[in-house]
Amino acid sequence: MARPCRPCRAPWISSFALLAAVTLSLGACKTTPQSDTAGDAGGGDTIVVVEPEVIEPVFTEDSANFVADPITGINEPAYGDPNPSARRVALLLPLSGASSGLGHDLLDAATLALFDIGSTGIELVVADTQGTAEGAAMAAQLVLAADPDLIVGPLFSHSVSAAAPVARQAGINMIALSSDLAVAEPGVYVLGIAPEDQVERVVAHAANQGHLRFAVLAPQTRFGQRMVVAME
What we know:
Elements: H1 9-25, E1 46-50, E2 66-68, E3 74-77, E4 87-93, H2 100-117, E5 122-128, H3 133-143, E6 150-152, H4 157-170, E7 174-176, E8 188-190, H5 195-208, H6 222-231
Parallel strand pairs: 1-5, 4-5, 4-6, 6-7, 7-8
Antiparallel strand pairs: 1-3, 2-3
Helix pairs in contact: 1-2, 3-4, 5-6
């Protein structure tokens, strides 16, 4: 699978930065006041990597080394104590498998978003969904050990459907990166751009240019069917 170009990260960086800002404003899940002291960008944010099978840390920051705990499978930073007032955001991404390139690009975007907002009040917990429904359910269960305030991801609709029950049972809101509106439900929100919206804008623009006859080339999949229905 071809890896997306680096400029494609830009919209995701903005999205993750917005999510981080929203998470910082949440007060329902943790009542401990946040610190009034803001650190420099990248200096105080903690990135914790959670993997179903821990072999070695998969992400390292210049400001910290991450040490894998063979019992919990959670890579903890090797310095300092956890910030008790920090908001924890769990990020479920396909870091292995056919879509690992996209998963790592999204992880990079999330990391850059933390640097952009320059906050020490966010801890990012990352788990590998392996791009499968089973992996997504396992990853969602695994990050619960970190007591996250919010779960972002997974990326694919089948993974969202598998991970959503875990988040719902734990009482944690999930913002899926999927563009499939069908997976949205109470407590599960969709961040991706719906193809129906894309079709509507493209058709509207073409119509404004005087083009009123359209042909649709779409795969015989659920996604393709959604595109066809949107054109009708």
